[in-house]
Amino acid sequence: MSKFEIPKTVNPDLDIERKNASFNPDEMAAFFWGKQEIVEMKRMIEQEIYSDLDDPLTHEFASYEDMASIAIKHAVAATKKLRAIQDRINPGGSEVYPTLMGGPVGAALMPAGNPFAVHLVMFTRALKGQGTPEQYEKFGRRADNCEIIGTFAQTELGHGTYLRGLEARADYDRKTQEFVLNTPTMTSYKWWPGGLGHTCNYCIFVAQLYIDNEAKGIHMFVVQVRDEETHMPLPGVHVGEIGKKLGMNGVNNGFLGLKDYRVPRMNMLMKNQQVLADGTYIKSPVSQLSYFPMVYVRCMVAIGNALMLAQGATVVTRYSVVRRQSPIDENEPEPKVLEHLTQQMKVIPEIATAIAYRLAAANLYLLYNQTAKDISRKDFSRLPELHALACILKVSCSYDSTFGIERLRQSCGGHGYLLAANLGNLFATATAACTYEGENSVLYLQVGKILMKVWADVLEGKKLMPTMAYFAECGQMTQFPNWTGTWDCLVKALQFACVGATRVAHRSYSARLKAGQSQPVAVNNTALELTKAAELHGRVNVAGNFYQEVVNGKGKDKRSPQFQKVLENLLELHLIQTFFRHLGDILRFVRVTENEISALQVRMEEALITLRPDAVAITDGFDFHDKVLSSALGSYDGNVYERLFDAALKHPLNKKPVPDFFEKYLKPFMKENAIKAKAKL
Ligand SMILES: Cc1cc2nc3c(=O)[nH]c(=O)nc-3n(C[C@H](O)[C@H](O)[C@H](O)COP(=O)(O)OP(=O)(O)OC[C@H]3O[C@@H](n4cnc5c(N)ncnc54)[C@H](O)[C@@H]3O)c2cc1C
């Protein structure tokens, strides 16, 4: 149908960028994904699983009902494919299935979103992590095997953040040894769980536990919501879909009400706390254990959102060397838009930021795995540190990727607004993570409160957790040492600003406590300062980690000098850009002269210009398959205009030369106007 066939060759404007790169993008791929073997496995898997995919735009033109059906079809196909590969290359492992059901591979396989996502990330993990071995045998094994599909139903119509405000209740009936589950009000209906609408037949239902009408706090219950044969909602269950969202519309987020719904005592997840048959309640030995599953999801958000930013940066970098607009010198031809310095400033820092977050998220995941091993040996000592780090990286990464993707979208001009660019979908997916798994402002406050405790420990000379150790060092300095402008100096300036912000927040907070305010009221009144301190702590972590990886990273000796130089340029850009973003925060505590700031401005411009010729090679090194990018603007071959045309011609409206609405509405309207106009003559 297309008059403009998509060429089989690479756009020469993109080709020349690749030829002129200063380094081999395969080196970036191994660095970005952690190991050469991982890249090879990823490529092998992608070659196998993408060959028979539907056109990613198909679901966009479907009705909502059809889209839900397409999403399930895709999720089932993805599960089968990835499980088969997992069984073939490492039976019993998890690096292919379920891991690749999320992230870029999952997005390629399930472009409408993954209705099994919460099943995989939360339902199965909670059954394993919070259930007893018997409960795992009864529910967990079947869930792992996808004989049943579940979700995690915590948020209610009336409450998400404030868990103690949840109204759903579970009353223990010791006569029958059952819990009676109820959502007694409209606002106590569960609202949001992924897949709950019409996909899942089970869920973990989070409710206030009552024994003899005495509240025991929030607990988790395994609840069957639909018949396993007919999929009909069970008696006492009111379940459905909550409606169309900004994105991920195949995820089938749902609502759930329960009325006097009875489950056996053994349906309460009892690994850490128990209700005995006689109604005796046994508390969890470590309260933080209950949030351990959330920590995992926050790690996944940090990794996933870093990759989303990298995808956006890949699309826009490629587009920016193919798109030509506005001569810089009137006598010269139109340049690639990436030659405009403002375009470089919009695109290249996002490339650096994506790498910085990728590295920070990988380190967080390492800490998660170490902590999980410690916990299995009943050592809970690292949990507070993991919790603090997961919170702050989840927030920083979801915010920065969201705003970064939006900046990238705008830097494509009009074409960035088309669905075919796929930047809108990326944005919608990235921004959701600012809300779920702990709303970002609320997590900032949690970290701010942790920083208050850290500062109190500094004042008392106590030992700090490793990721907070800089508080002790900076806390001893009365003023920032001489400004040198080195990378070390830039990281230290951020640390100093964070410690300064924490110190003043602590001063305000303590004064409020001293004045008689309760702790929560004092926290609320100090919330802006706490948020600022937390935000800076996030920046310190990401920037400091990037610095360490580039300068002292394990694989540094194996890097080619050319690649090392590229990494150093990216680090330079990231550190200086972060400095400028927080200039006000830094100047509050660190003396930097106008000349020193001007020198950084010059260095930032130089970093942009130095990185410009390698921008395509760096993003090629992110190694995203075209099926993952799913973008007319960002495909590997750079045939942007042909792909835009191809996507436009696939639009259902273009199937017929005259749409139905012409005869129905448009023609009568215009004719009527013509008759009226004639009558006036
Ligand atoms: C795409 C998506 C998927 C989801 N999937 C699931 C799921 O599978 N299962 C599930 O149970 N839930 C799910 N949720 C729900 C999600 O977890 C909640 O929306 C989230 O926890 C925020 O809660 P809330 O909506 O009640 O926001 P609210 O808490 O009402 O937030 C509204 C505003 O109040 C502010 N606020 C609230 N409390 C405080 C405070 N203490 N201090 C300062 N400010 C505060 C917030 O910062 C925000 O600005 C999902 C949500 C989305 C968007």
UniProtKB/TrEMBL annotation:
Gene3D superfamilies: Acyl-CoA dehydrogenase/oxidase, N-terminal domain, Butyryl-CoA Dehydrogenase, subunit A, domain 2, Butyryl-CoA Dehydrogenase, subunit A, domain 3. Residues 487-671 form the Acyl-CoA oxidase C-terminal domain. Residues 152-259 form the Acyl-CoA oxidase/dehydrogenase middle domain. Coiled coil: none annotated. Its main location: other. FAD binds at residues 155, 194. Its cofactor is FAD. The active site is at 437 (proton acceptor). GO terms for molecular function: acyl-CoA oxidase activity; FAD binding; fatty acid binding. The keyword Translocase does not apply. Residues 24-149 form the Acyl-coenzyme A oxidase N-terminal domain. InterPro entries: ACOX_C_alpha1, Acyl-CoA_ox_N, Acyl-CoA_Oxase/DH_mid-dom, Acyl-CoA_Oxase/DH_mid-dom_sf, Acyl-CoA_oxidase, Acyl-CoA_oxidase_C, AcylCo_DH-like_C, AcylCoA_DH/ox_N_sf. GO terms for cellular component: peroxisome. Keywords: FAD, Fatty acid metabolism, Flavoprotein, Lipid metabolism, Oxidoreductase, Peroxisome. Pathway: Lipid metabolism; peroxisomal fatty acid beta-oxidation. The keyword Repeat does not apply. GO terms for biological process: fatty acid beta-oxidation using acyl-CoA oxidase; lipid homeostasis. Residues 291-452 form the Acyl-CoA oxidase C-alpha1 domain. Transmembrane segments: none annotated. Belongs to the acyl-CoA oxidase family. PANTHER family: ELECTRON TRANSPORT OXIDOREDUCTASE (PTHR10909), PEROXISOMAL ACYL-COENZYME A OXIDASE 1 (PTHR10909:SF250). This is Acyl-coenzyme A oxidase.
